[in-house]
Amino acid sequence: MSHRNAEFVSQQQAREIRRRAQRADSMDFFNLITGPELLDTLEALLPEYRERKFPPTVTLAMFLGQVLRADSSCQNAVNEAIVNQLLQGAEAVSANTGGYCQARERLPIDLVRELARQTGIMMNTHTSQGWLWRGRHVKLTDGTTTLMPDTEPNQARFPQHGSQEEGAGFPIARLVCVMSLANGAVLDVAMGPYKGKGTGEYGLFRELLGCFSAGDVMLADSYYCSFFLIAALQARGVDVLFEQHGARHTDFRTGEKLGARDHVVQWSKPVARPAWMTPEEYAAYPAELTLREVKVRKKVLVTSFLNPREVCKREIGKLFLRRWNVELDLRNIKSTLGMERLTCKTPDMCEKEVWVYGLAYNLIRLLMAEAAVQAGVLPRQLSFKHTVQVWVAWSQRQFLSTAPEDTAALLRLIAHIRVGNRPGRMEPRLIKTRPKPFGRLQTTRRRARANIRKYGRPKKLTA
Questions:
Q1: What is the mean pLDDT of the segment spanning 160-165?
Q2: CB within 8 Å of 127: residues ≥ 6 apart
Q3: d(CA 274, CA 278)
Q4: Which residues pair with 173 in a beta bridge?
Q5: Which of the 8 DSSP states describes residue 380?
Q6: Three-state DSSP class for residue 89
Q7: 254/238 Cα distance (integer angstroms)
Q8: Which is more confident, 89 or 242?
Q9: How many other C-beta atoms can be found within 10 angstroms of the C-beta atom of residue 203?
Q10: Which H helix or E strand runs over 172?
Q11: Is 129 helix (H, G, I), strand (E, B) or coil?
Q12: Are 304 and 240 in contact (CB under 8 A)?
């Protein structure tokens, strides 16, 4: 009997998901994540739930809306839900944010994580051949950090920087991302503390090796130029292109000369076994790697493209210049969407928030890809920030029709603004705006307030 009840509840949930999908606007986020290719994932990972004011699908849609808007507070999300319900003639829920915050906590992180990954995989699967590099998927890899609220649970899992006094810093997490060069989608993310054993970019990247398959090309900076990493990728049939690591000396007088500052050399396996590697794993690695080193402008690049007739020196240099796209993509997620500082109070919710940012980012990239197809341009030629602005304005409409021609108009509007082609652009990493005349907090706020009560405020504020 209990089995029949569970099956009945599951069928009810599936019908409810499809009903909501049919009722959603043609370009609504809920519609995007309930498309034919993602609906099975959503149904499989959606938990059993009773009818609430904020069911999981509604909660996820509101969470996605939060990370896209300038005011990302829970109160603003609830207020928007109330306004939409009133305009639809329904009874509005309470303006209290408690119910929505509890609904976000109940939202399974596996659901958000898999939806984010599946959107990236779906975009890569349907990527036009004209967007690829020589018909191959190039995958960008880089690391970054994000801050989170200074709460005890967050500090316990993601401690603040070691150079900061207790109470004077924020919990900090390290992220390593794998992204598509062709369409900018996030394919996977690894998250860990900023400090501690096995928490470096290299250690986190080992969790992401499953993103790469035979025929792919990995493009990254010098940090990833490691013998063991290159060997692991080549064993999967993946080609690589990195900048040479600063600790390795390059002598173009050695090896097989291919041209000016262009040669093929043998890299020997390091004698010292890394602490994270077992003796059996170490023994399984090859004794040598055959790699190509080439100097383009002032950088020495390392690649597995050994044949200069297939991939010439100039093409290698042009491809490496496109590595900068991963920096721009991370800036879009952190600055444009606002992931530089998370808002949740617990580490589990912070991790969930990171995946919601990833899902929202991929859905925006999905719109950009559709607009690029319609306009006959590359997705990298369209502006991410412009797309976010257009989507936020579009999603706030109330009485517009959702006819196919309206959807086409939205895509045309997204493709209207193009990113300028500025090769060789160079800007100083400096800001003109002067800082506020306030000193830095070097202790806990409670202790700082006690000092003010006891000694008064300082006569002169120090910068």
A1: 84
A2: 137, 180, 182, 183, 369
A3: 8
A4: 146, 193
A5: G
A6: coil
A7: 26
A8: 242
A9: 17
A10: strand 172-180
A11: helix
A12: yes
| CA 3 from centre of chain | 39
Contact between 169 and 160 (Cβ < 8 Å): yes
Q: pLDDT: is 437 or 117 the higher one?
A: 117
pLDDT of residue 440: 81
Nearest-angstrom CA–CA distance, 24 and 26:
6
Structure-token match 């939409």, residue found: 84
Residues 6+ apart with CB under 8 A from 447: 167
Mean pLDDT score, 417-437: 81
Residue among 372, 369, 380, 274 nearest 326 (CA): 380
Strand partners, 294: 262, 301
Show Cβ contacts of residue 414 under 8 Å, excluding neighbours closer than 6 positions.
367, 368, 371, 382, 386, 387, 390
* Burial (CB count within 10 angstroms: exposed 0-12, middle 13-18, buried 19+), residue 98: exposed
The DSSP string of 400-443 is ----HHHHHHHHHHHTTSB----TT----S---SPPPS-PPP-S
- List pLDDT tens digits, range 305-353: 999 999 999 999 999 999 999 999 999 999 999 999 999 999 999 999 9
Is the C-alpha dihedral spanning 26, 31, 34, 37 positive or negative? Answer: positive
In this structure, the number of other CB atoms found within 10 A of the CB of residue 240 comes to: 21
Global pTM value: 0.87
Structure-token match 């003796």, residue found: 279
Tens of pLDDT, residue by residue over 231-265, are: 999 999 999 999 999 889 999 999 999 999 999 99
Residue 263 in contact with residue 250, Cβ under 8 Å? no
CA 415/CA 333 separation, integer angstroms: 20
CA distances (Å), 306 to each of 148, 212, 294, 315, 348, in order? 45, 20, 10, 13, 45
